Amino acid sequence: MYDPMAEAHEFIGKDRAEAVAKATAFFKAPESELAISVVDPTRASGLGTRCVVVAYLRSAGGPGRRQGESRRGREEQEPRSERGAREARGGRERNGRERERGNGRGERSERAERGGERRGRGRREGEARPAQAAAAEPSTGTATTPLTELGQFVCGLIERMAVGAFEIAESGESEGVVVIQLRGAGAARLASGDGRAVDAIQLLANQVSARVGGDEAKRVVVEVEGNTDQRTAFLEKIADRAAQRARETGRPVALEAMSPKERRVVHMALRDVPGIATMSVGEGRYRQVVVVPENAPEYEEARRYEARAREQE
Prior knowledge:
This protein is α+β, with helices and mostly antiparallel strands.
């Protein structure tokens, strides 16, 4: 069976002691049996005064050390904050070497980059004006169901974005998951384009949930009328990439925790893919889909999981 204890995980606390306490509780092991790395707060945005640690069981050998694991797999397991800081350091070192050569290429490159940034900023500002004009009506949210603090936060956040009038509803789709649904003209404008605004709102709502709820925090899913097809296409693309990575490494690939509706999209996307099986593991808001390749030890278990799911349809 797929064992999440064999992977590295991030834990957030108000200080190192609290974050490490969460890690020891999750792995059910003392601190001495864990490999722990503290994320530098100056190189990870959005942390504030909180502390983030990355931990894994020493007995598991650490992420990316199993035989047959590709460099791509290791990079995807690396925490995004540390990977971003490493790439930024590499970029600064390359720029520094260009300036030290003294042949003027580094200075010309910097001037070109600044000019490109100014031109790009001008285009973005010009593109934003029509959207602002379209949202001339008041950006007021109308609640069609009672809202908790999380729902009120999302409602207030969208009202400040001045996208127009919208309706907001909140429901508990399952244990540990809160679904916030948006409808109306303002919601349609919010979901237009590449949908990054909706993803950003969902990210902020989950950060608020983690801060307020602590260990009992619920996962927040923001659904906008009109972007269901776009979300489904995105999940199907994620499923296809996970299947490709599972074949390359010969190991199961665990996706991030999802709502029951999102997990079903992934299961259905890979249902008839040869040599690939899927199953769900975990409880509550931590439940996630695992994509298993044919040569993995967990493959037969995943096939049995799929058979039971078909019987229940």
